[in-house]
Amino acid sequence: MNVVVCVKQIPDPAAPQSLEAGTNTLDRSGKLILDDSDAYGVEMALQLAEQAGGGDVTLVSMAPNGETSGLRTALAMGAASAVLVSDDALKGADALTTAKVLAAAIKKSNPDLIVAATESSDGYTGTTPVQVAEILGLPSITFAKAVAIDGSTVKVERQTESGYDDVTAPLPAVITVTAGVVEPRYPSFKGIMAAKSKPVETVTAADLGVATGNWGQEITSVDEAEARAAGEIVVDEGDGAQRIVNFLEELKVI
Amino acid sequence: MAIDKIWVVAELTESGPTTTSLELLTAARGLGGTVEAVAWGPNTAANAAVLGEYGATTVHDVGDIADALPGSPVAGAIAQAIAGGQGPDAILIPTSYDGRDIAGRLSARCDLPVLTNITGLVGGDTLTTQHPVFGGTQIVSAKFTGQGPGIYVVRAKSFAAESGGGAPAAVSPLSVPDLGATNASTVVARHVEERTGPKLDEAAVVVSGGRGLGEASNYAMVEELAKLLNGAAGASRAIVDAGWVPYAHQVGQTGKTVKPDVYLACGISGATQHMVGMKGSKNIIAINKDQDAPIFTVADLGIVGDVHKVMPALIEALKAH
Predict the structure, then answer these.
(1) Do B73 and B168 lie in a common domain?
(2) Which of B150, B183, B216 delimits the end of a domain?
(3) Is B193 a domain residue?
(4) A232 forms bridges with which residues in the sheet?
(5) E-strand spans in B176-229?
(6) Are the C-beta atoms of B181 and A169 separated by less than 8 Å?
């Protein structure tokens, strides 16, 4: 079974973030890393391919400046190859354009299953995987917390407001996985060494036939949010719990 | 492009429209023009009164979708109306599991861009949207520049749901086109998980735990505190990612937005990812051993201390109270 995993390489969320002057888009000029959210999709894809008795896991990613460091992390986990769409013309691209790019890149692999995170950690639009499914004319099951393959069917436990649903779809299909569904493996030394020579094909939007330059939306302003008034911060001297009780009493919660 | 007609995607449960659906209807009323709802399922007609009360003059009924997921059929029905010139100028969709599916499908089907994670809407010739970034420290305003209708995906709790005293909505069928393989996902069973206490996004008190709890078993203290305060138990992304608690408990950018009267953060450092989901709480109490933790910048009461000492003491104190 061949699986494509959509992965995003993002600025380190632990580092300070900023918007670029002029465009007001997220500054992505520094080093990019594999989005933590995507490690679950990569792990899920590897496990499903193994359970199905083999097949390749291919990564598809869109990132500026030919960035591959996040892809190398996922290749070191065990993915076989990657397609990277890197093109200055895609700077600031919206979710739908991103989906068109990813869909065109995915098509080249003709996969049985496409896996993505429910949303990225930086842009968190949360619609791209379903847009990809619609463009490819495929069914989708989002917010998967458990996934199994049964012949030509994918079986998913899908998160709902009140619990979860068992949902099935015929392959090929698109699924999005929530964090924590599997435990992503740490790349082994051998895996890290092997990843360096795994194939990464770099393509442009034009190669994929996707139009660029008009995202249909613009940022009109960026403003500071109203800050909360400073509170009382105290070091616990054994009275911390009592202070909380007093505050809750003051608020008439207890 | 004036906004003359707004459609609100309204999700219905057995007990009526979801709160976010009513919030969106309320918001739509304030933007001028006609407000109409789009709903599906076997109970649309039964909800015409409440949808009307909150502002919908018409409810476009996609009908009973049986065991399908809503994304494809609801988006397909709306897209067909747009293609036929019967569509609105703006479509408001709740940020929910199904709402995002509908928005994504609709966007791709109509080749229209989408704006998501909206927490504010300002009316005018074109709608201006507001989006919190960097943990809610900054607000980005945006708008569509092309041909409409605009697809707006709005986060829960961005507006208060208020009755507009409207008459029951007229029910009008909205037909679903042939959807092919996009509609091939089938719900084969539904599982309702028993919950004690209030829902996370409706609770007056939320007690949340983070990595500072040290290990998964300590989350029991969060649950016990939540129970003692008649609240709900939440979690940071870090411990959801680690598999300590299910995704349904997650508060933050990737999870739920909560605005309780009291938010008690235990062992949560306050990553931007978390803050955006809880900084709208009326009162915030934080316990964390690191006095430089960002969570203290939004706390009304911050206890710099060890959760393993403060939480057990708090549990005892509340039991004795």
Answers:
(1) yes
(2) B183
(3) no
(4) B301
(5) 186-192, 205-209
(6) no
- Are residues B38 and B166 part of one domain? yes
The answer on B217 and B119 residing in a single domain is no
CB contact under 8 A, B188 and A253: no
- Alpha carbons within 13 angstroms on the beta-carbon side of residue A82 total 33
Chain A residues 5-24 with a CB less than 8 Å from chain B: 13, 17, 19, 24
Does position B121 have pLDDT exceeding 80, yes or no? yes
Are residues B260 and B300 both part of a single domain?
A: yes
Q: Which of residues 16-45 of B touch A (CB under 8 A)?
A: 18
Structure tokens at B2: 């004036």
Q: What is the pLDDT of residue A228?
A: 86
Question: Is the CB of residue B320 less than 8 Å away from at least one CB of chain A?
Answer: no
| CA-based nearest residue in chain B for residue A141 | B185
> In sequence order, what DSSP letters do the residues of A133-194 get, joined into one string?
HHHHT--EEEEEEEEEEETTEEEEEEE-SSEEEEEEEESSEEEEE-TTSS-PPPPPHHHHHH
B189 touches chain A (CB under 8 A): yes
Residue B96 near chain A (CB below 8 Å): yes
Residue B181 has pLDDT above 70, yes or no: yes
- A88: domain range? 3-208
Measure the CA angle with vertex A118, ends A225 and A96; round to 5°.
80
Contacts with B113 from chain A: Cβ below 8 Å: 94-96, 215-217
pLDDT at residue number A29: 85
Which CATH number goes with the domain that contains B287?
Answer: 3.40.50.1220
Distance CA A233, CA A239 (A): 13
Residue A47's pLDDT band, with cuts at 50, 70 and 90, is very high
Domain assignment of residue B129, given as a range: 5-183
When scoring B227, B301, B309 by the number of chain A Cβ atoms within 10 A, the one with the most, hence best to mutate, is: B301
**Average pLDDT value over all residues in chain A:** 94
Tell me if B288 is assigned to some domain. yes
Instruction: Find the CATH number of the domain harbouring B127.
Output: 3.40.50.620
Out of A167, A214, A244, the one facing B314 most closely (by C-beta) is: A244
Q: What is the pTM of this model?
A: 0.94
Q: Are A88 and A64 in contact (CB under 8 A)?
A: yes
Structure confidence at residue B1 as a pLDDT band (50, 70, 90):
low
The answer as to whether B77 is a domain residue is yes
How many domains is chain B partitioned into structurally? Answer: 2
B136 within some domain: yes
What is the tally of helices (H) and strands (E) in chain B? 8, 18
Of A200-204, B181-185, B239-243, B285-289, where does mean pLDDT reach its minimum? B239-243
